[in-house]
Amino acid sequence: MKIGILTHPQGANYGGVLQCYALSTFLKKMGHTPVVIRREGDKSFFLWEWTRALLRILHCPRYYTPDKIDITFKIRSFINSNFLRTYPVRSQKRMRSICKDYDLQAVIVGSDQVWRQDFAMNFGYNYYLDFVSSNVTKVSYAASFGLSEWTYTTSQTLKIKDLLSLFKGISVREEDGVDLCKNNLGITPELLIDPTLLLSVEDYDKFTSPRLIKEKYIFIYWLGDKSLVQNEIDKFKSEGYEIIDVNLRDDIELPAIEDWLSYIKYADKVITDSFHGCVFSTIYNRQFIVHCNKSGGFGRLQSLFNSLQMQEKLNAGNAIVEYTKVNNCIVALQEIAFNYLNKTLI
């Protein structure tokens, strides 16, 4: 079956890229052909980007910054090499022809925060698959609302409820998402693991870089304000650890996906406020220290730790994880996910 995947536009987001890669790879293992739908900004945004590009070419001072580096180049290289993608779609009208143009027999929306209101509503109801015709199967896989409260308006809620009634399968990533669907949409979705957990270490090792740091080191993957963790950094420095730091707020070239995975795999410890920082620390059985990223809430981490039987992390971010139990749990959850996709993609 040829299956479209509609997720976040892929950019400077390691977890966002890898969850899409993982779902694509898992679908291939099931015998399907996944195609990533490139839903991007609408035409006005596209025209603005072209205008800015022209201003840069003309060396307009506000837009011409010759010393500014392309910080996402290495991440885009991975995307270009590992995904079958559609042409960029920048309008509702063009979106309605995507299934026919690529002969899609099903479309999956997810994973990650595709149903977060302040993101999804920028694209009309595309992320509730309003563009998919009735003869194409509609499924959500581990979709996330991002927050623990319902932020859609009454009219939006009614529209979403109607659109989801046409889905063959509805699943969400967080326990909060289950409650939001029940309380606001009258729907009881399935709770499934993030796609990145569908693959094994061996799957990721096919492209993960070899060990890059010879000395003992701490890997920090941080999305928020790094000053909040500075005391921990200073402590590990004083103990002789090298600090490898990737912060998406820094205006420096970001490491390649392959290197980012390597930094986690071989780290003596990981410090992170990222959902996927925790996920890949778990996949590689690394001990990690987690801090709550206030902008994203605690619900997604709480659900992750509950589903993987890592409740100790709910009480203490630096708690030691016993990975034999966790690994067995992941295998069981992979089977649940496989059964869900197998029954919905028929």
Low-confidence stretches are 61-68
Q: Give me the count of strands.
A: 10
Contiguous helical run count? 15
Strand content: 5-15%
N/C terminus separation:
8 Å
Oligomer: single chain
Question: Which structural class fits the helix and strand makeup?
Answer: alpha/beta
What is the topology, as strand order, of the major beta sheet? Answer: 2-1-3-4
Looking at the structure, what is the overall shape?
globular
Sketch the major β-sheet: 4 strands, parallel
Q: Give the averaged pLDDT, no decimals.
A: 91
Helix/strand order: EHEHHHHEHEHEHEHEHEHEHEHHH
Rounded to the nearest angstrom, the radius of gyration is 21 Å
Q: Level of helix content? A: 40-55%
Sum this structure up briefly.
With 346 residues, the protein is α/β, with parallel strands linked by helices. It has helices at residues 14-29, 43-57, 73-82, 92-95, 98-101, 117-120, 154-164, 175-185, 201-205, 230-238, 257-265, 275-283, 299-307, 312-315, 323-344, and strands at residues 2-6, 33-36, 106-109, 137-140, 171-172, 190-191, 217-222, 242-247, 269-272, 288-290.
Brief descriptors of the model:
15 helices, alpha/beta, 41% helix, single chain, 346 residues, four-stranded parallel sheet
Care to describe what's here?
By secondary structure, this protein is of the alpha/beta class. It is 41% helix and 12% strand. The strands form 3 sheets. It has a 4-stranded parallel beta sheet with strand order 2-1-3-4, covered by helices on one side. Residues 61-68 have low confidence and may be disordered.
